[in-house]
């Protein structure tokens, strides 16, 4: 609905009734028809009501669309009176708002009419799926359902969804489906395929681009530009395609130059980037924001602030119009490279340009920038500025400020902020929860403080606890040898019904037991295994080896035999670790299950010899480098001594005239 409309006017709705009508005129008509319908619930004009649905769907007022649907449902014939075009308008409007559930509900009404949808309508729905490829495939299925014939544009729309989803494998699968149907791919098909690969997979993009040319399809200007961008991690390749584009007869445009400039800047070839920028200007092409920002970012990455400032000034005096996303990019990049003065400048420029463009996100960029620069006072300043504005802090804001407080040792301030989050119905993310607990443990050198904080925050629903949090705290116990504390974190893991632990977590817990006192070591280890079984975590060989290690330490051959039985029951194969644990244990020599075959022993011996040889080579190489360095230093000392302490008019090691040499 409303596709292709220009500024100040509204194009055709789904019914195609209102071409060229202004938005105000369209709104007035929609309101008039809506009021007429609502005032006559039992005998309203169905034609006018259907038109009103199309109009309000085009305008994006879906509350009015739903109210009109209710009016139809109250009539005797109900939704059967709905017009095909009105329904299509509503489906498109919901799809455009990314409300797939409602779009499907309205599509069910379309099915009820018995009239098949137009193929162009289905194509539009697939395109509105954007990066939600699963949804695009669902809409594509409607084509088969109604017996319609899919064309190359339908397949292209699905492939494009996979391109936006960064899923080249499925994009290629749909390309193969298109070929299997006997449909010829076009330049767009290939372009969507070779732009679906990540930037660091430029060689695969290149292969598909060349495949397109072998298929007899000549790249257009867009395809050439896309391949220059796709291989921009490798500037020599981008340069090569830039030249080939010209030789093919396709003219370079702003994007061609901008993508190659970005490639040069990404690889720190700044002289080439500047030269190409001047070529673009001399050729009369319009310079866009991307060219400037590439140069600015390139120089910031090289820590060449004067040149970054030069290109910032050039951009400001140019005719480049900055949109809200451009201001956001400038703030982000300057903050990323710790140039907070310029980041603040662009924040103010954005506010002065159009205040409504500002949001919590821009404040977060400044707060994060000062947190990375370890400046808690400025973090706090911008946090207060955000709270004074019409915007509200989000989880990211709070977490960044809390991290800044922790880095500055301001534990009380961090704690207050966590509780403030909880009062605002927000929770720390698992990552920030783990950072907080580990920081408290490190500061107080006492795990009990971390446990008390955890219990308090948990009670107030201020933190999010997942496997990473509990595993991380158990790992901290391993490093510090905190046996009692590890039991607390294990019990928390055991109580957490929403967490599915892995074998690795329990392996870490057994390591704590193994490093602890020998008095009740086996009893504690068995508790860990009981918890593991309760969580239905499968026994793996690393767990068996841990239990055999504890058995060996306790000289408990009964437990060792039991764990060898478990190894057999679970079809696990002994390994080098098993052999190293059990070798030389007299009480277990009669049990052959831990002993490897002679072939395995020989293989392990060969691997050991190879590893020893590798280490010896590395050590010899290091010694050689040290010898060369020492020789160079001795040579430099000798040269300095031979100059008499006055080499080239600069006082040397002699220090005083007449005493050197």
Radius of gyration: 35 Å
Largest sheet: 2 strands, antiparallel
Number of strands: 4
Major beta sheet, strand line-up: 1-2
Mean pLDDT: 87
Number of helices: 33
Principal-axes shape call: globular
DSSP helix fraction: 55-70%
Distance between the termini: 91 Å
Low-confidence stretches: 1-16, 645-661
Q: Into which percentage range does the β-strand content fall?
A: under 5%
Judged by helices, strands and strand pairing, the structural class is mainly alpha
Please provide a brief summary of the model.
By secondary structure, the protein is mostly helical. 69% of the residues lie in helices and 1% in strands.
Describe this structure in words.
There is one protein chain. The protein has helices at 23-39, 46-59, 62-74, 84-96, 100-113, 119-128, 133-145, 152-164, 168-180, 187-194, 202-214, 221-230, 235-247, 254-266, 270-282, 289-301, 305-317, 324-336, 340-353, 360-372, 376-388, 395-407, 411-423, 430-444, 447-459, 467-480, 483-495, 503-515, 521-534, 541-554, 557-569, 576-582, 598-642, and strands at 9-10, 21-22, 646-647, 650-651. With 661 residues, it is an all-alpha fold. It has a two-stranded antiparallel ribbon. It has a two-stranded antiparallel sheet with strand order 3-4. A hairpin with a 2-residue loop joins strand 3 (646-647) and strand 4. The chain starts with 8 loop residues before the first strand and ends in a 10-residue tail after the last strand.
């Amino acid at each position: 609905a409303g596709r292709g409309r220009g500024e100040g006017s509204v194009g055709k709705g789904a019914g195609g009734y209102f071409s060229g009508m202004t938005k105000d005129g369209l709104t007035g008509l929609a309101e008039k028809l809506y009021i007429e319908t609502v005032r006559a619930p039992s005998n309203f004009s169905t034609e006018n009501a259907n038109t009103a649905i199309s109009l309000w769907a085009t305008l994006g007022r879906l509350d009015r669309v739903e109210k009109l649907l209710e009016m139809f449902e109250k009539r005797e014939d109900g939704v059967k009176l709905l017009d095909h075009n009105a329904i299509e308008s509503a489906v498109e409007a919901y799809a455009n708002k990314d409300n797939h559930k409602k779009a499907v509900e309205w599509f069910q009404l379309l099915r009820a009419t018995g009239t098949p949808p137009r193929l162009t309508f289905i194509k539009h729905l697939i395109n509105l799926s954007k990066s939600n490829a699963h949804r695009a495939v669902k809409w594509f299925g409607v084509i088969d359902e109604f017996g319609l014939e899919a064309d190359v544009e339908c397949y292209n729309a699905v492939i494009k969804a996979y391109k936006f989803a960064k899923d080249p494998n499925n994009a290629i699968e749909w390309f193969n489906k298109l070929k299997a149907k006997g449909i010829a791919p076009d330049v767009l098909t290939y372009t969507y395929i070779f732009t679906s690969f990540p930037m660091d997979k430029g060689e695969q993009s290149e292969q598909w681009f060349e495949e397109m040319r072998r298929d007899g399809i000549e790249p257009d200007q867009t395809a050439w530009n896309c391949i220059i961008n796709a291989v921009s991690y490798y500037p020599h390749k981008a340069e090569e395609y830039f030249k080939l584009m010209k030789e093919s007869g396709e003219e370079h445009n702003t994007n061609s130059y901008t993508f190659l400039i970005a490639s040069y800047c990404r690889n720190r070839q700044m002289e080439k980037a500047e030269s190409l920028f001047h070529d673009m200007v001399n050729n009369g092409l319009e310079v866009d924001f991307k060219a400037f920002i590439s140069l600015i970012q390139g120089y910031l990455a090289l820590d060449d602030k004067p040149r970054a400032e030069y290109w910032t000034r050039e951009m400001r005096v140019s005719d480049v119009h900055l949109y809200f996303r451009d201001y956001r990019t400038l703030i982000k990049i300057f903050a990323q490279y710790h140039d907070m003065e310029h980041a603040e400048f662009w924040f103010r420029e954005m506010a002065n340009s159009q205040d409504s463009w500002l949001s919590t996100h821009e404040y977060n960029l400044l707060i994060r920038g000062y947190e990375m620069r370890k400046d808690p006072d400025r973090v706090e300043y911008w946090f207060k500025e955000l709270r004074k504005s019409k915007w509200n802090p989000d989880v990211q804001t709070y977490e960044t400020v809390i991290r800044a407080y922790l880095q500055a040792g301001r534990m009380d301030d961090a704690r207050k902020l966590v509780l403030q989050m909880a009062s605002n119905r927000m929770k720390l993310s698992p990552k920030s929860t783990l950072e907080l607990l580990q920081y408290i443990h490190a500061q107080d050198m006492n795990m009990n403080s971390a446990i008390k904080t955890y219990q308090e925050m948990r009670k107030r629903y201020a933190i999010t606890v997942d496997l990473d949090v509990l595993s991380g705290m158990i790992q901290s116990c391993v490093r510090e040898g905190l046996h009692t504390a590890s039991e607390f974190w294990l019990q928390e893991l055991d109580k957490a019904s929403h967490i599915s632990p892995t074998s690795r977590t329990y392996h870490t817990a057994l390591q704590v037991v193994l490093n602890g006192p020998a008095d009740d070591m086996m009893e504690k280890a068995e508790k860990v295994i009981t918890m593991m079984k309760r969580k239905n975590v499968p026994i793996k060989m690393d767990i068996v080896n841990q239990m055999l290690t504890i058995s060996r330490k306790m000289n408990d051959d009964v437990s060792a035999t039991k764990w060898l039985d478990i190894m057999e029951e679970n079809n696990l194969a002994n390994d080098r670790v098993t052999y190293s644990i059990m070798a030389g244990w007299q009480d277990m020599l009669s049990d052959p299950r831990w002993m490897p075959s002679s072939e395995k022993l020989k293989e392990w011996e060969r691997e050991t010899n190879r590893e020893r040889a590798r280490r010896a080579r590395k050590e010899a190489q290091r010694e050689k480098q040290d010898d060369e360095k020492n020789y160079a230093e001795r040579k430099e000392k000798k040269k300095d001594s031979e100059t008499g302490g006055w080499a080239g008019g600069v006082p040397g090691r002699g220090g005083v005239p007449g005493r050197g040499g």
